[in-house]
Amino acid sequence: MRKPVLAGNWKMYKTPAQTRAFFEAFLPLVRAVEHCEIVICPPFPDLAAAVEAVRNTRVQIGAQNLYWVKEGAFTGEVSGPMIRSAGATQVIIGHSERRHYFGETDEMVLKKTVAALEAGLMPIVCVGERLEQREAAQTEAVLSSQCRQGILGLDSVRFSKIVIAYEPVWAIGTGKTATPEVAAEAHAVIRCEVHRRFGSAAAENLRILYGGSVEPDNAQALLAQTEIDGVLVGGASLEAASFAKIINHQA
Ligand code: PGA
To answer: Is 239 a catalytic site residue?
Structure first.
């Protein structure tokens, strides 16, 4: 049994004061939740407020990016040990917005994943195809290549500690969710690659989240797929009630 992960990616939204207000509203709504892990990933300046707010709760805090060097002359970057020492326990890596706007490659994603694991952070590594790639029937090839050039370069021990998020780029922030069947098919492609590289136990234990316009209205159908082990939620995680609704769908 794979324990679902329900993660919120706040992107570049909210100040520390707004973070505190979110958790004041959110925590009472998810207090009884035991069926899944809950992770919220705010921007760096909100990490301290978020970690403080969730103390003594089951909610975990993650960052949205990291750099692979521990410290040094890298203006504007933040390292794994810095994130860990701020109290965060997870980190999103290789989000399509980072790949698209900031030029992140599969090779960088692999380096960041190793650095996150070395710092004691659980990486949530994102993969996903663009619209034109799906329309050209390249989805499977793109996902396989992103996995092979990136996270399948880990050793099996490290690999067992990561979570993958399948986020079709055409579904992110567009209101166009992949149907549960389309998402599950893509998850199966990823799981198959993992099986080929690391064997059946690793493939069976790997948690693959779906991300892209997940809302309270469609979360239940997505999470009902056995291939879908959780969700990575952008827009709908910004509001306490809507994210709590997604989390409580099966409670
Ligand atoms: P969205 O974003 O839920 O707003 O589509 C998901 C993500 O980018 O992780």
So the answer is: no
